Structures are given as structure tokens and as C-alpha cells.
Amino acid sequence: MDPMSETTPVVEMRNIRKNFAAVQALRGIDLVLNHGEVLGLVGDNAAGKSTLMKVLSGAYIPEEGEIFIEGKKAHFTDPMHARRLGIEMVYQDLALANNLDVTSNVFLGREAVSTHLGSFSVMDSRRMEQEAQRLLDRLKIDIPSVRLLVERLSGGQRQAVAITRAMAFNSKVIIMDEPTAALSVAAISKVLELVRELKAQGASVIIISHRLEDIYSVSDRLMVMRNGRKVRDCPIEGDIDNFREGVVAYMIGARDDFAQEAKAEVG
Hints:
- The protein has a single domain, classed as Rossmann fold (3-Layer(aba) Sandwich), CATH 3.40.50.300.
- 36% of the residues lie in helices and 27% in strands.
- The chain has ten helices and twelve strands.
């Protein structure tokens, strides 16, 4: 890889603004994500976290702002466009098809085809099964068979399948929306280990979570949002108690690293 590409952020968002009628959901947000970095994105409900990530994943088009992928300006028109540029988002509801097996979910909407017969296509099931198993092995995910129906999997295994699907097409960035919500302690541990494995393999990850201990455990850097603004952007450091106390202070408005910028904008 070109050394310059390592120093160029994999994602840079500048002055992103998004409104829903009279509601200002995003008020000039800047975000940087570096290669091989895990960024924790936190904030109270309605802080704008998911909205910002939906802009990055192509689900929303902002009123203002610019997005750069590896230094090149990008104009996302829909999620498929973002996906082609290597941006994948794993939503909280996972969007898995319970009545299909693991392989079918990994390749859902992007099936491999072996033969075209006029207007009909024959899927290459063997190739997809082999590739799905290779991906599971690569990410050290323990699922007995890629032929298992998703409805028979545990919550942690289902999350792993959704993440595997996001990694299946050489994604540069994986966005996870509350990946450990409603999981058992054991499942949470496995999902966090999967995040570490993604980073070890060179992926860049953004995690939205209300579980501050999870953010502390796997993230390199923290970004806190409040009322559609960025109020904190810093490396993860210190012990967990001080970390948690500091984050909460920013979330409730007791602290704000960018308060002067916000006042100047209003003025």
C-alpha cells in the first residue's frame, strides 16, 4: 500500500448538516476515521449518532457537507453506492432473513451465479458455502454449519453473521449500531473479540453504543455527540471509572470542547 494512503484518513466528513423539517439533526459535524482504527461514537438518545452514520452509509443525503473516502470526494446517492465504495453498516435489528441459512444471509442480494439461462440465473451454492465458511474461519467465528437456519442461532451468532456479511466484499469501513444490545455477557465478549479481530485484519470500525464499558474495551478513540453536535473527540485513556464519568459529563452538557465554536456559529 502507498505510504501516503496510510496517513490519509479512510473517512473524513466535513461540516455535515441534516434537517428533518424544522429539526436540526446534525449541526455541522466533522468526523475523521483512520485506517485500522476503532472509533467509539456515543451520545444520549437523539444526539444524532445514527443519523450521522446513515449519512456515511448512504441512507440519508445531507443538506450540506462533504465526505471523503481515502482522500477522494464522494457523493453518496444510496446505500448501494456507499457499499461499492467500501462502507457497510450493521444495523441494530441486523436485517437478517430468519428462514434462510447462514450462507444465504451472507450473500443476500449479492448472490454468486454459475450459469445464466436466458432471463434466469443459477446460483453457485457450493461456491457461496465455501466462501461463507472461509469468512467465518477468517474472523474466528464458531458456527457449526453455514447451512444452519439463522433462526436457530444465538443472539451473538446472529450478530456475527451480520458482521460477516458486512466483511464479505472487502469493506473498508464497518459501522455497527449497538452491536452488543440485548446480548448475554458471553455473547458480548465474543462480539467485542470479533471487533478486535476486524481491526487486526486492517478494517476500520465505528461503533455506536450506550454501553460505555464496551467502547472503552475496544475503541482507540472516542467521539461524543449532543444535540446534533460534536462535543468531544479524543483518544481512549485513563481508567474505566474516570472514562465513564468524563463521557457522561459531555453527554449531559456539563462539558463541551467545542462550545466556543458553537457560540461563534450562532452569533
